[in-house]
Amino acid sequence: MPPMTTDHIENTPRIDPSTTSGEREALEQWLDFHRATLARKCEGLDDAQLRTPSAPPSDLTLLGLVRHMAEVERGWFRHTLAGEDVTWIYATEEDYDRDIHVTEEDSYEEAHASWQAEIARARALATGRDLDDLGLGKRRNGKTYNLRWIYLHMIEEYARHNGHADLIRERIDGATGH
């Protein structure tokens, strides 16, 4: 295993969430904390490393996780919260998990740009809304969700996948930490 490096945890700014903030601020801070954590896990890696799978038979990669989180941001904020009629960025009828299934044609630069654009759009859509505001779109299960639930779910989604990213990054170069 290559020597451990911590370069990946020093470039993307990340602010620790306040221990005394109100509910909304806490939710937004924790979501941003987890967004920055995933970005840090990808820093300093080359294309081959970003495509390195976690462990066979899984084909989960850091590149796939970034693509997946772009889809998740888009689905929950644009479709569920704002009611926008958006299509998936990567998923197809033939491959619903196309975000995770990367090919040689897929690039980190494109995935990162899409992810950051979806994050910016999510922030804009949440601005001015109350945590109790119901989303204008429905999920496949027919349910509507309020902004509070969406924030909590997004924090959970990032936290779960950041655990995956921890293991993938450690396998690549031995780097650990948050």
Fold and architecture overview:
With 178 residues, this protein is mainly α. The chain has one domain: Four Helix Bundle (Hemerythrin (Met), subunit A) (Up-down Bundle). It contains 5 helices and no strands. α1 packs antiparallel against α3. The longest helix is centred in the C-terminal third of the chain and has 27 residues, at 147-173. Mean pLDDT is 93; it is low at 1-9.
> Could you give me the name of the CATH homologous superfamily?
dinb family like domain
The domain count comes to 1
Count up the helices.
Answer: 5
CATH topology: Four Helix Bundle (Hemerythrin (Met), subunit A)
Quick recap of the structure?
The protein is built from 5 helices and no strands. The chain has 178 residues and is mainly alpha-helical. The N terminus is likely disordered.
Task: Write out key terms for the chains shown.
single chain; globular; 5 helices; 0% strand; mainly alpha
